[in-house]
Amino acid sequence: MSCPFKSAPLGPPSLGSETSSLCCAGRNSLCTHNPRHSTRSQVSAANSRVCHHFCWKVGMGGRKMARDEENAYGSQDPDDQQPLAQERRLRLILAGRTGVGKSATGNSILGHRLFPSRLAATPVTRRCALGSRSWAGWRVEVTDTPDLFTAQGRHADPDCTERASCYLLSAPGPHALLLVTQLGRFTTQDEEAVRGVRELFGAGVLARAVLVFTRREDLEGGSLHDYVRATDNRALRALAAECGGRVCALDNRAEGAERDAQVGELLALVERLALEHDGAPFTDDVYGLAWARRHARPDDTLRLVAARLAARGLGRGWGGQWGRGRRWLEAARRGWPLALLLLGGALLFVLLLLHRGAPGPD
Question: Which residues form the domain of 345?
Fold first, then answer.
């Protein structure tokens, strides 16, 4: 298994000229990219050397890099010589259902195309991936995710390996969870994805969530807050309230200054959220396990984190059966008014039949 945790040091803190790294966190995959000095041959030659020497983020602002990794990738960029400990970290996780534009949103945040994103009938993103950039004195780290949060996505990850990869890439915890949805198309699948987020991270994670709408251009200059307040979608209004009213919209086709202004608005919102918590990330026992084992073999850590998630009932077996049972109960709860109406109609019909069949007075 390849190491899923590589993230190389990156370029200067500017909106238009930053470089990014990509880490594909999945089984049998290691994909690193630095546009300024990484090549396919360097990656290929380095795979065998770095798979047991990944770089873990240390504390809020530092990074420990293995010597083999430094040798394999070199240090040709003068910006790489600057101490990374001087940059504060903002860790973000992209979440939501398939097809809403999570990867495109990640690319907008990074400032260029890094995560695979295209219109397709089937999901394009298959593995968790990590990219980063500098912004206003912060090192912003973005974890892109495949479909981890709907029933179909969880079924494709029965041993919780991909969900464990998400935890490891974002350890010791995210400062913000970006719940991505399409403007005007918040569906029952979006609601299902939100339930999946709660199941994976716990309900408390929504206190660190920002609701991000793609297709900002459909607002046609209108106010996003007015749109959310006026929508007749009660589930959407409730979610926005649960996220503390933190909403933002992006046009992922925007470029240049327009894109930078939109991304700056989103990151400023995330920055305020992080500072409200004194810079401390969201965490739980699984993040604690991942962070405590940051110096252990990555394969072993991935396996242990996946096992911890499976023990929560997120994998196959009894937990999966309970999850299906709970979803059935939720569906039954939502449909009880109709059931009562039908039952009442049936009882009334029986009473009418009995009344008509009863003998009259002599």
Answer: 319-357
